[in-house]
Amino acid sequence: MAGGPVLAQLHFGREDAERDVTEGLLLRGGFVPNAAYRGALSGRKMLIIGRKGSGKSAICMQLLADGPGGHRGGKILVTPDEAAGEEIRRFELQGLPGDSAKALIWRYVFAVHAARHLVGHAKEAHGKRPDSVKALARFLKQNGEAAVGDRLVERLAQGARGLQSSLSLEAFGVKASVDLAQSPSEGARAARQLEVVEQGVTRAFTDLGCGGGTHPPLLLMVDQLEQVWSAEPDSNSMVIGLLLAAKHAAGLYGRSVRFLLFLRADIYDSLSFGEGDKFHGDELRIAWTERALRDLAVARARASVGEELDEERLWTELFPQTVGGEETAKYLFRHCLPRPRDAIQFLNLCQEKAWLEHQREWITEADVRQAGRQFSEWKLKDLSSEYLVAHPFLNQLRPLFQNTGYVVTRVALARRFEAAAETLHHDFPAYADALTLPGVIDVLYGVGFLGVRRGNDVVFAGDDDLPVQPHETEFHVHACFRAALGATRPFDLRPYEVQFADVRNTLGYPSSVTSGGTPRNRDDRLLRELRQSCHSIRAQVHRAVALSWDVGDEIKRQIGRVSDDAGRIPAGAAASVGVDVDEYLLTTSHYFTTLAAQLIDSGLDETTGVNDVARRIEEEARRLRRLAGGSFGSSGSS
Questions:
Q1: Average pLDDT, the chain
Q2: How far apart are the C-alpha atoms of 415 and 545, rounded to whole Å?
Q3: Which of 130, 175, 357, 626 has its CA 20 to 30 A from that of 578?
Q4: Within a 10 A sphere around the Cβ of 510, how many other Cβ atoms?
Q5: What is the largest CA-CA distance in the chain?
Q6: Angstrom distance (rounded) from CA 331 to CA 347
Q7: What is the mean predicted confidence (pLDDT) over 79-97?
Q8: How far apart are CA 411 and CA 473, in angstroms?
């Protein structure tokens, strides 16, 4: 293509949707519609819930866009900044609980946005301004809400003052000093004032016939609440108030206005309020499968290079076909949390390693692995930052999983946690209730750091709604965090140290006889018995069908190293190359004994068959010790 190699042009987009829109990639075909987007566009769902980086803002930006894929009616986006959030958090009304008071200020914001929309929309779309719309225009002017450039914080401050004292309602024929003065409390007076405003907005929609299907409804969206949220009660009241206000306004304005609230999952799930059960039908949680992430990668790659680029070319020409023997796309997305931001970062990092650092026109396996190490460091740091408000102790849990296997049992984790518990309780006294072993497991599962083994599968939060159960004992660190933790092997088994890597090639001896040949002397027979022990152990691992496959593979890998090592000793010439076979068998039997002890001490559930494997290893260790004691006679026999 013109403009240089394809890899130089390849880019998977920005981590934030706002910059993706600015640079045009999202709008050139880099957006992949998913169930959450279709639910939002159809109007059947009001709450779009997802983790940080799951694509909430991308859906929002796509709906805001004009043209294909965008909402074709009026569109308003509300994104509170810290000043606006502080204004809402501080808002109180005598006679009303915090949630209800904050619901009123949100309802006021919605009513003012709808009123401003109607004033402009009436003339542009309907060619008329009935009296109800003129009344809205007067209300906005009298209450300082007419200026289009007002910031949200200023609107909130203006609304707070009006609701806490009195709004100018003369535009609707209401004198504040008349029946509003009879309200029993500040909260009741504010609610009555707001009802007058909302009735005025509803009347204008009705007079214009905006809810009759002549044109799409006004779309009112709220995003980026996490920017102003903390785990404090007034922050929770701010979000609960938003939910209550949107529910109320959706019922009040009917088909004239649609509301969409984009909420981070950890914020929404932390809320507890009496009417929470009424929102389940409005919820739509964003979930990404490997297939969806593959489609996203191809769409964004195609949008960036400006030419036809299919999936096969992306994963076989620009990327290596496999990484560590695994299909590249499967490897990449297994090492990401299932969300677009992570996938975009990892894919871009691979491109940068190949093109920017090495000026290659294709990505190699080494580039992917190098990118994976840096990406893992990013993700481990990002996890602590993402949950800093709700779980500020996350970073202090990191040493529990560092430089060990990525499969961890409840028993092993209990030992590690017990050693760290006193320090954790001292540093985070406010979180003592969560800093128990079950509490830590629940938190780490909830944030996606740990998965739980169920049957033959490892399940992570989002794959299954079921929380960790007390009887579940085996957990796996997510692949994206393993490199940063130094937990790249499944289990903390002592690795077998190869002793004879180059003895055959260096001395020019033939390889040792196979198990089907005739051993030449006692040394060869002992070595054959050692390889037979390895075969027996691996067969026992294979029969342990309930054993986690990565733990089983690690055991078989270490036993395979033993067998391969023995096979490097030249047949009939062990003594001549300086190998004391008796000593070698005793050393290997000691390694087997250590391996069996580690498995027994691992805490793996007995039902997995791990104890049967450990017993078989111990049996073979004893057998090798007996053999080394002279069962085959002298080493000189033939």
A1: 86
A2: 27
A3: 626
A4: 10
A5: 118
A6: 12
A7: 85
A8: 8
